[in-house]
Amino acid sequence: MALRSFSHTDATSIEHAAALAAPGPEKVAVIAGGTDLLGALKDNIHPDYPELLVNLKTVVGLRGVTEDKRGLRIGALTTLHDLAVHPVVRSKLPVLAEAARSVASPELRRMGTAGGNVCQEPRCWYYRCPDNRFHCLRKGGDRCNAILGENRYHSIFGAARAADPSCTQHCPAHVSIPSYMARIRAGDMRAAAEIVLDCNPMPAITGRVCPHYCERGCNRCDFDEPVSVRQVERSLGDWVLEHAAELYVAPKRRTGKRVAVIGAGPAGLSAAFYLRRAGHGVTVFDALPEAGGMLVGGIPAYRLPAEVVRRQVAAYAGMGIEFRMGEAVGRGPTSLAALRKAFDAVFLGTGAWKEKRLGLEHEEKLDSGLRFLAEARSGAAKSVGRRVLVIGGGNVAVDVAISALRLGAKEVTMACLERRDQMPAFPEDLEQAQLERVKILPSWGPSRVLLRDGVLAGMELVRCTDVFDAQGRFAPAFDAGTKTTVEADQVLVAIGTGVDVSYAGKAVRTAGGRPVVDEATGATSASSVFAGGDMTRGPASVVEALAAGRRAALAIHRELGGVVAKEGDGRISRKARQERQGRKGATGQGGTGAGGGRTCFEPAALGRSRRATTIEVAVGKRTIGGEDRGTLAAELVEGEVRRCLDCGCVAVNASDLATALVALGASIRTNRRTIAAEEFFDARPRRSTVLEPGELVTELVVPPLAAGTRQAFLKFRTRRSIDFPIASAAVVMELRGGRIGAARIVLGAVAPVPVRAAAAEAFLRGKRPDGETAAKAAALAVEGATPLGENRFKVAIVKALVARAIRGGSAKYPLRGTSYRFDEPFTPVDPHPTDDQRPRGVGGRRRRGRACPGVPDGLRWGRAGGRWFGRDGRGLARRACRGVVGSSERCCMTTWEMVAEKMKDLPPERQQEVLDFVEFVRGRAGTGAAVGGTPGASSLAGRLAEIRRRIEASGEPLLDVDGVLREVAERRGGVSALEAGADENVR
C-alpha cells in the first residue's frame, strides 16, 4: 500500500487553515505534526481519499504554555514532549504531564501535539483495517463489526450511536428502533412511545402490516436470527392506542395557520398528525365515507382489523384534526383552487385508486381485485367462484387470492408476468399464499379471455420472456408460441393501480400521470401545494407513505415560518437525534455532555438465541375477518427487546490527554467557540469530537486548582512504544484535613468518550483516601459496565487503576509508576519445551510445569524480546515471567489480564484482595526496606501472611501465596532492587 496523490498546503494562519478545511474531512485532511494521519492515508482506511492535506505546523502562535489568572493556557501545537517536561505543567498539573508522557515513544511525543492528541481518530481494528475492508458506522456504514466480533480492547460501557444503525437505515420512516427498545427494557413505555411517534404516527398499524425492512437489516441476521421488531412495535402500538388521550393531544401553542389535507390515507393522516402537532389547524378531506384510505379499502381485515384503524383515526380527531368525509375535491368550494385560497397550504395524498386494464376482448367479464377486497372487508362480497384465477403478482394480488380461498373458493391460481424472484409482492406474503394452497404461475401473461356459451370459462396465458427492456422500463416481451390455459369461473384482475389527479387541473405539473414533486420536501410546481404517498411514486408500503407524509409536513411547517430541527435531510427531530447519539437518559454509567450518555445492551444479547414468535391461527381455521396473528405476550416482548444489541460504535476514545483534561475541568478553545472538555468529545462518522468542518482547536485552557489538590494518571497498555491505552484513569481530588472534598474520576479507553465515574465521585466526598475507601470507589466506578464477549478483563484493570490512583493521594500508598504494559510480540516455540528451554525461576533454578507461582498450567511457551511468555488456549498472549525480583532474574506474578481471567467470577471484595496482593508482591507498595533479616522484613512477611489468610479463609485460594512468600524470603537483594526493576517495567 502507498499514499495516493493529493495536494498539500502550508497554512499561514488559523483563518487560512479553517477556510481550507471547510469542505470537511471527506475532502480535506488536517495534520498537526503527528504520524497517525499518514499511516491512515497509506492504508486507505477511509472510503474517500482527501483531495487536500493542510499542514497546521506552519501557523505561528499556536505553540507554548502560558499562565494567567484564568489558569494554564496550552497552545494546540504544543508538543506532547513539551507538556511532559514543562516545569509549570509538571509542578501544577502532574496529571496532564503524566498523560502526555505516557503517549508512545519520545520520538513520537516530539512530533505529536496537544491538539492532534485530543482529535485523533478511533483505534478500532475494524475502523483502521486497510482498504476500508469493514465499512463501519464511524465511516458511514450501517454496523459495528466489533460488537459480535473481535472486541478485546473495546468499550465496556456500551456504545455510542455514532450514526443510524442498520435497522434504522433500512426503515423508510427512519424510526430510532434501538432507542425505543432500550426504553422498553427500562420499563419506560411512555418514553418508548414518544420516540416511535416522532417518526411513525401509527405504530399499531405498521406493527401489523409493515414489511419490516428493518428486520432484514438487523445485525443479528449474520449471527442467529433478527430481532422481531415488527412484533415489538405492534405491542408498543397497542399500548399507544390504549393511552391515546395522553399521547395524541392538541398542541399547547397554535400558529394560526391552516392546512388542507386532501386524502385520508396513510400519507394524508401522517401529514395531518405532524402538522397538527406543530400547532397548525388541519382539515382532512376525503371522498370515502370512512378515513383510512387503503387501510380500510385495500388491506384485508385478517391483516388489519377495522377497529384498529378506527381507534387510530379517533386519536387524531382527539388532537383537533377536522375530518370532512364524503367530500370529493374537484369543483366548487372544494376545488383545489378554492382550497388554496382558504388555507395557507395544501397537501395532496389521494393515493393510487385508478385500476389498470388489460385491454383484452371481453374484459367486462373480469372482476376488479381491489373492489373485491373492499367488498370482502365490508362483508358485501358476492359469492366467490369455485375456481378463481388472479392476474397480478403484487401484494394486492396476494391478498385477493388468499381472500378468495377464505370466502370459499376451492382452487385459486395466481398468474403474473414476473419471474418468481421478480414478483413485487413481499416475500413473506408469497410464502403465506403458498402455505394456504395458492398456486403461483410466474412468467405468464394474459392473452385471451375464454368464454363458453357466453359465460367466463378461464383465460389463455402466454409465456413472458422479459418484463423490462434494457433501460429498465416496463416493456413485456412474449413467446407467442408458448401458451397455456387456466380454467376458471372467476378472474380477478390486480395488475396495479394508477393515479387520478384530474381534480388538480393545470395547477400541478405531472409526468407519467403523477405529480412532479421534490423528493426531499414533496413540493409541487404550485406554490404552497405539496404531495406524497402512492400518488407520487406508485403503490408502496404503508410505512413509505407515512414517511412521505412526514417529510411534506416538515417542509410545510418550515414554509409557514416554523423551525425544524437542523439535521442533514431534516428527517428527525432533536429529541430523536439525541436518543440516537446516546446523549440523554442513557442506561449504565452516568455522564454529561456530548456523548456522555451511552447506549447499553443486555449482556445476554451477546449469546445466541431464537427470535420470539407470536401464536398464529392454524391455516385451516383462518377466517376472512379475524386476525391471523396475535400480539406478543408481555414476557415475550421483554425477552425480545433484550436480544437487541442496541447497535452503536464500541470503539474507544484513545486520547490520553482527553482523560486528564476532563478530570481537570479544562476547556478547549477553537477558532469559533470555547467548549468544556467534558462536552468536547463525541462519536460521529469520521470524527471523535464535536468539531464541525472548518473548526480547529487553538488552545487548551486548564483553570487554577484549589490548594491541596492531589492528582494521578494511570494507564494500562500493551507496549511502551504504542500509545493506545487498554484503560486509563485520571483522578483529581481536593484534600482538606486528610479528607476528600471535590473529586473528579475520569476513565479513558473504556467507552467512545471519556467517562466520568459520577457515583464514585459522590461516594468519595468526605472520606479518607485509604484502602477501604479506594476499593469501594473503584467498585462504583465500574458499576453499570456491560463488557463485550472478550473484554471483561478491562473491568478488573479499571478497578485496580482507580483504587491505586485514590490511594496515591495518601502518604501510606505513594504512587511510583504510571503506565502498565502487557508484552512484546509473541513468538511461539515448542509447546513442550525441554528442561533447558523452560524459563528460569529465581535463584537460578530451572522450574518445571509453571514459570512462576500463579501462572496457570497448559501454557504454550514463547520468546519475545529475550523474555519468556505463555499463551492460553484462546491464543491470547500472556506473560509467564513478568515482574522483577532481583536485578537480573525475572520471575513474579501473572499479568493483570491473567489475574482478571482467574478472578472474574469472584465477588468485588475478593477481587480487590487479590489485586492488593499482586500489587504488593510486585513491589508497588514497598517501604524501601530490604528483605530477609533486615529492617522491614517482618512487615513484608506479615503483610503477605495477612493477605494469605484473608484469601485462603474462603477455601478458594487462587495464588500460590506460600510459594511467593518463600521465593521472596529466599531472595537476598532487597526491596529496593524490586522497586527499581518494577519502575522500569511499568513506565
Largest sheet: 5 strands, antiparallel
How far is the N terminus from the C terminus?
34 Å
Mean pLDDT over the full residue set: 80
Strand tally, please?
Answer: 36
Query: What would you report as the Rg, rounded to the nearest angstrom?
Result: 35 Å
**Which strand order does the major sheet show?**
4-5-27-23-24
Strand content: 15-25%
Contiguous uncertain segments of 5+ residues: 566-597, 810-902, 920-938, 956-987
Helix/sheet category: alpha/beta
Assembly level: single chain
Percent range of helical residues: 25-40%
Shape: elongated
How many H/I helices? 35
List keywords for this structure.
single chain; alpha/beta; 5-stranded parallel β-sheet; 987 residues; 31% helix
Q: What features would you describe in this structure?
A:
This protein has 987 residues and is an alpha/beta fold. It is built from 35 helices and 36 strands. The chain has a five-stranded antiparallel sheet. A hairpin with a 2-residue loop joins β34 and β35. Residues 566-597, 810-902, 920-938 and 956-987 have low confidence and may be disordered.
